[in-house]
Amino acid sequence: MICEGDQVARTECKPLPEFTASDIERFWSRVAKRGREDCWIWQGTTNRSGYGLMAVGSRKPYRIIRAHRIAYLLDHGKDPGSLLVCHTCDNPPCVNPFHLWLGDIGANIRDAATKGRIQSGDDHHSRRHPENSARGERQGRSKLKEGDIVAIRSLHETGHWSYPELAAKFGVDKAHICLIVHRKTWRHVA
Asked: Tell me: the pLDDT tens digits for 154-176?
């Protein structure tokens, strides 16, 4: 299962705990409810991104859970599990159950792109300011240097070197050689 939150995305998600009547009362006491179409703003603790947080359980061990996940569980009676609880309103502190829907990471990204909240293509900052992007050997993990890229493309153009041969010569995967030759990677190298 993939877990949403401030944790690394690869961590396992535990099922949400059982909520006592006291937990439920404490939760809703921290919500500024308005009309069905309006955002219901979480009045308790939030993280840096503005999502509401609530500690659930006894003093030790207690769990910190995002408030919109709790709101979804309380209203729908269903633990979101590995799915994300997404907002139709795009307002992180909102816990209005009518604004919440379940989706996977792909659905959440598509929703954000549709609403113009994700920069892509020509609008992306790396395209507008390539001088600020760590590319090629500047990004730190590269086995290859710009001179190697020029050599790989030149050798391939001769017709005497195959992808596997170039991969063995330069110590990288043949798929990487293909991406270099077709300028899918290292595009900034002439």
From this structure: 999 999 999 999 999 999 999 99
pTM, two decimals, is 0.58
User: Which DSSP helix (H) or strand (E) runs through 109?
Assistant: helix 105-114
> Is 86 within 8 Å of 100 (Cβ atoms)?
yes
Angle at CA 133, nearest 5°, toward 128 and 135? 125
Listed by start position, the domains of the chain span 21-120, 135-181
Closest CA to 101 of 111, 93, 113: 111
CATH, domain 21-120, list 3.20.10.10, 1.10.10.60, 3.90.75.20, 3.20.20.70: 3.90.75.20
Angle, alpha carbons 131-186-177 (nearest 5°) = 165
Tens of pLDDT, residue by residue over 37-55, are 999 999 999 999 899 999 9
- C-alpha triplet 16, 96, 42: angle, nearest 5°: 75
